[in-house]
């Protein structure tokens, strides 16, 4: 099984929280991916942090090890889901929509703590390793 890590999971991973490092090691790092959107969010977080250089180094080291999935193939799902959710009055953020669409188009399970947001998307597989660990 392949997993797409949401931004919040990456942050907990960096902080050594919730036994995520061990869980990812046990499954095999090669089975984990992030979206380009997640990388952008991680860089933003590092840039606005108190220790920019240190946190950018953490993100860059992580980005060198993990496969980063481009969002191009997810664009159609993004558009379809955004329209569907807007019609229902249950929109979610554009960045989360792109992350979710990336998981869907690549048939990956999204690992996130933000289940309430993502579960509104159709055909998405979600696992919460924080609150259900």
Kindly describe this structure.
- The structure is a single chain.
- This protein has 133 residues and is α/β, with parallel strands linked by helices.
- It has a single domain (3-127), classed as 5'-nuclease (Rossmann fold), CATH 3.40.50.1010.
- It is built from seven helices and five strands; from the N terminus they run βααβααβααβαβ.
- A five-stranded parallel beta sheet has the order 3-2-1-4-5, sandwiched between helices.
- Helix 7 (115-118) links the parallel strand 4 (109-111) and strand 5.
- Helix 3 packs antiparallel against helix 4.
- The longest helix is centred in the middle third of the chain and has 14 residues, at 52-65.
- It is globular, with a radius of gyration of 15 Å.
- The mean pLDDT is 96.
């Amino acid at each position: 099984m392949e997993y797409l890590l949401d931004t919040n999971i990456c942050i907990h991973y960096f902080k050594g929280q919730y036994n995520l490092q061990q869980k990812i090691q046990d499954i095999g790092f090669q089975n984990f991916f992030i979206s380009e959107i997640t990388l952008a969010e991680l860089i933003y977080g590092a840039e606005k942090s108190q220790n920019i250089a240190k946190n950018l180094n953490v993100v860059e080291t992580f980005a060198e090890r993990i496969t980063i999935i481009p969002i191009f193939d997810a664009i159609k799902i993004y558009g379809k889901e955004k329209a569907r959710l807007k019609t229902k009055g249950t929109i979610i953020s554009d960045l989360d929509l792109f992350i979710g669409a990336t998981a869907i188009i690549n048939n990956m399970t999204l690992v996130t703590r933000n289940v309430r947001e993502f579960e509104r998307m159709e055909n998405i597989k979600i696992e919460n390793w924080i609150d259900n660990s």
